[in-house]
Structure formats: C-alpha cells, structure tokens
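Weekly structure sync - notes
Attendees: PM, LS, DV (DV joined late)
Agenda: review two folding runs queued last week.

Item 1: First target. Sequence and structure tokens pasted below for the record.
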Amino acid sequence: MNHDSATKGSPEPTPTTPATTAHQLPEITRFITTHNADGTATFSNAFPDQVSRTSVPGALFTLGYATDTLPVDLSSDRDFTAYKQYLENNPGLAISTGSVCRIVDIGPDITSAMHRTVSIDYGVVLEGEVELILESGETRRLSRGDIAIQRGTNHAWKNVTRRVGEDGRQEAGWARMLYVLLPVLPVKVQGEVLGESVVGMGVADSS
C-alpha cells in the first residue's frame, strides 16, 4: 500500500510509509466457541484470544480465522488444524476452497495497490473512513459501520481518516476494516476470465 492514487493504468506503487507508524488502534480480541465432551457449548482455548498482526507495506493484517473447506468441517476440530497451519504460513488474500476472516489496519493517508481476488468479499469499516476506488474511476466513501460487497472486481482502498491530534489539530489517522472472503466460480466478462491480481500488495498469491 502507498500514498499514490490507485487508478487504472497507474504504475505499480512503491510503499513509502511504515505500517507501524503511530498505530493508534486497540489490540484485537477474538473468541472462538466449541463443544466440550458432553456436547455443551463452551469457549475454546486452542488459540490465544489476542491475535497477532502481520506487517505489509502500509498496513497491518490480522488473520482472525480461516478455513480450508466450504462447508466447514467442524467435527474433531479439523478447522482448528487448518487455521493453525494458516497462522504458521499465511495464505494469500483469499483461499480458493475455504473462507477468510481478516482485519486490516490501514496506515494514515495510505492508498493500496489496485487488486482483484477470485472471491466475494464482505468489507466492513470498523474504525475511521476509507474510500473505495474502482477501475472505472468511480469512488465511494465509507464510514464506520458501512459495508462494501466486492464481487471479484479490480479495486483499491484509500484511508481518508482524520482525527484530532494531541495538539488539538486535525491529522491523518489509522483506519480498520473487517473482511470476510469466500471463493467464487471464475469471473467471466465478455468471454475473458478475470484472474487474481495482487501485484504491489506485498502478499503471496492466494492459495
């Protein structure tokens, strides 16, 4: 992610802002439920409630959960095994056979690279304000609680958050988004299959 505007035909961005600069957002706590031996619902202690972050250019990624199948196999905690593997070896943005729940903290004034995944993404703004930029040049501004449904399209995110600093002046701030990504069939437009494009995002190709 970078400071440059992400529009169609623009060069690949070069990250210029460390993702850890003046991070103002709280730690993320995630709770997982399960069943005990007699079938009673309980909270799992298979993973810490606090979820660690992974730094990418201009942002911080938190993998809240991930599965390698849909429907998900919850028997014998098979999904726990898959999630543990993804924590040890981060998947790409999407998982072609499963689901991803990810929290992304976007640095002040950062604009991501234009990117596309073969997935349907439910994006929810948790903190701050962001701008969703499409390949056509169209934009929409999203505030806390707003939702974007990303249907396999090429897009970028720009953090436009403003906050009051310690000196009482307006300054750029961090934004936080929650994404749930689910796999889709190949997207075809006028006979052309639109594949994944994540160049400049600082992440691996999706698995």
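Item 2: Second target, run right after the first with the same settings.
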Amino acid sequence: MKQRDAKFNIGDVVRHRSFPFRGVIFDVDPEFANTEEWWNSIPAEVRP
C-alpha cells in the first residue's frame, strides 16, 4: 500500500476554492473512514 502524506496540518486555516467558507484543520485520518455509499454520493469530478 502506498503511503500518502496529508495535504494539511492540524491548526491550518483553509478556504474553500469556490465558496466563501473557511475552516481550521483539527484532525487528520490516516485512511478513509466513511462508507462506500457516502463516497459514491460525491460527484466523481469533485472527489478528493
């Protein structure tokens, strides 16, 4: 399995590319922790 580094660090302030939303990173999951159904509900062109 290929190891990936997180794009953001805890405490980073982030801004949405398209909408006027801001946020702060407070946790990073080392692997995907949601359901396949949730993942498939996101349009493929906007998935991370």
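Discussion on item 2: The chain has a mean pLDDT of 88.
Action: LS to circulate a short write-up before next sync.
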